[in-house]
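Q: What residues go here?
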């Protein structure tokens, strides 16, 4: 008897409305705001279609400079991320480098650190006037000029790279760990040196992952708002995201914001399409099978210099920023030495008790984080189940729409949501609901990717057995599939929660005084010069993030970079 003949005969599936409702929610999240974004960008007063808004933004010299600055930033961040991430991935994946576990943990910390928080820390470290490194430089040399000025384009590239190179690292470290050593050893036997082996064998094998990591780094640089707002604006130049944000200053220029947002949206979509094509051509990569061995490369005398270089990178990314945040949190004057007279807990009292916006912001952040993660985990689980089990016609479209928000930068999504939900029939601006929709839409791809991998790992035959016994789809999902997928669903919850906690780019446009979240309060405190309170609230955000990471590692038995415990 065949498998199909053992299953119940097809009839009206009572679970169908559930799958259709999940798909409609997904369509609503995507289609409504983007439709309004396009419509407003080409609308003119009194009705009709016009391209005047596009001509206005493209003809404005200031806006063209913002576009040029963004391209320069993205290109150099992509190259710098490869220069940092690729060697570090090779060292930790293929060599006998000591302390590889410590480096992986620090890369993970860099990966989950909000880039805008790192930018704040580097203002305190390398600000031209009061920055700690420049203060020490002046004391040691007696010179008046600073050692470094973080408020420059090179400074911005440096800081963004510190929190972007993990994307290159993740792409490469997993690929390098799968490549067998046979081809490399064969090339060495034929007389090739280490550099020749790397250029003729290893590089071609990892090139697709390298290009993909470069594209991911460029995408992150294109979409970032916080770091450019903190470092570029004081330096006197804009990027696309900060320029879009400025359109919402009084008087707001919504039509120009929409017109300026769409080129950024198209650029990210094009880059992701290129990445997909590149990854789709990875078939020639030699992955070790049963007989393939991955032998560790001995660094010899270079072990300790290589470790020192890796730790220097992580010092810039984690040790120095976290250290200056801790110092500022405990100091009366953050720029002065941390002596007993300068030691205080007043910053904690000010942040959590005296500063009125903080308590409400923490409550809003936690409410939004828990609600978005819970609803998002359920939604992506349903959508992934629909797509992997092919339960509805057009299940491929469901999968596409679930991953589609990845091409929408947070600032562009915020513009689209602002336009969509400040007019009837859905007037949500000024409520937590609009932030919930923004976070849910933005974090869908991350949660869906985790859930999709989870359901693909669960054999469909287990569900068929339940159907033979007469159980419906929903009961099977509840009693059979969900328990097996529990760890994957919890991981999706954690990924979404972390994304909500650290989100700034959409929040900065959609918040109101009553709906501020932690990231927005940190940004506002910078305008007031309250660096001690920034440090306290930033450390609180990091504590929430790392507690969630610890939970996820406990559930999955591996870290977010893919290494088993």
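A:
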């Amino acid at each position: 008897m065949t498998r199909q003949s053992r299953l119940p005969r097809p009839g009206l599936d009572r679970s169908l409305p559930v799958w259709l409702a999940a798909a409609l929610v997904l369509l609503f999240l995507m289609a409504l705001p983007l439709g309004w974004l396009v419509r407003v960008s080409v609308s003119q007063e009194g009705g009709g279609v016009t391209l005047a808004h596009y001509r206005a933004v493209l003809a404005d010299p200031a806006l063209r400079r913002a576009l040029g600055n963004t391209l320069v930033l993205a290109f150099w961040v992509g190259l710098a991320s490869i220069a940092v991430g690729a060697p570090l991935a090779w060292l930790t994946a293929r060599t006998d480098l000591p302390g590889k576990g410590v480096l992986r943990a620090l890369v993970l910390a860099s990966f989950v650190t909000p880039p805008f928080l790192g930018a704040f820390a580097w203002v305190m470290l390398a600000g031209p006037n009061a920055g700690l490194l420049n203060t020490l430089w002046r004391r040691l040399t007696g010179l008046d000029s600073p050692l470094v000025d973080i408020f420059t384009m090179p400074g911005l590239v440096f800081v963004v790279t510190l929190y972007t190179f993990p994307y290159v690292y993740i792409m490469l470290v997993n690929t390098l760990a799968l490549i067998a050593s046979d081809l490399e050893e064969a090339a060495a036997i034929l007389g090739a040196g280490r550099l020749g082996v790397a250029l003729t064998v290893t590089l071609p094998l990892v090139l697709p992952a390298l290009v993909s990591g470069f594209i991911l780094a460029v995408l992150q640089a294109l979409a970032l708002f916080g770091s450019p707002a903190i470092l570029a604006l004081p330096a006197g130049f804009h990027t696309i995201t900060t320029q879009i944000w400025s359109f919402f200053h009084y008087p707001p220029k919504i039509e120009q914001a929409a017109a300026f947002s769409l080129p950024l949206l198209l650029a990210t979509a094009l880059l992701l399409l290129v990445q997909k094509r590149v990854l789709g051509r990875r078939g020639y990569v030699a992955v070790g099978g049963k007989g393939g061995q991955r032998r560790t490369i001995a660094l010899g005398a270079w072990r300790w210099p290589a470790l020192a270089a890796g730790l220097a990178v992580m010092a810039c990314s984690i040790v120095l920023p976290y250290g200056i945040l801790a110092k500022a949190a405990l100091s009366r004057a953050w720029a002065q030495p941390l002596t007993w007279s300068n030691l205080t807990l007043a910053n904690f009292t000010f942040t959590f008790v005296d500063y009125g916006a903080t308590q409400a912001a923490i409550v809003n952040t936690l409410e939004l984080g828990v609600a978005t993660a819970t609803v998002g985990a359920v939604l992506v689980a349903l959508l992934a189940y629909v797509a992997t089990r092919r339960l509805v016609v057009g299940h491929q479209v469901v999968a596409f729409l679930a991953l589609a928000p990845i091409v929408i930068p947070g600032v562009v999504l915020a513009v689209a949501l602002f336009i969509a939900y400040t007019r009837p029939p859905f007037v949500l601006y000024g409520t937590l609901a609009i932030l919930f929709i923004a976070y849910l839409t933005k974090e869908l791809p991350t949660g869906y990717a985790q859930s999709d991998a989870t359901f693909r790992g669960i054999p469909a035959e287990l569900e068929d057995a339940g159907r033979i016994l007469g159980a419906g789809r929903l009961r099977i999902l509840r009693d059979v599939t969900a328990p097996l997928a529990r760890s994957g669903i919890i991981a999706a919850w954690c990924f979404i929660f972390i994304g909500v906690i650290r989100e700034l780019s959409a929040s900065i446009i959609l918040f109101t005084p009553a709906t501020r979240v932690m990231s927005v309060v940190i940004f506002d405190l910078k305008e007031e010069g309250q660096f001690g309170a920034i440090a306290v609230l930033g450390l609180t955000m990091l504590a929430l993030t790392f507690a969630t990471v610890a939970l996820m590692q406990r559930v999955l038995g591996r870290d977010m970079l893919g290494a088993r415990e």
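A: Context that may help when evaluating the design: The chain has two domains: 13-43+356-565, 51-281+301-307. Residues 13-43+356-565 form a domain with the MetI-like fold fold (CATH 1.10.3720.10).
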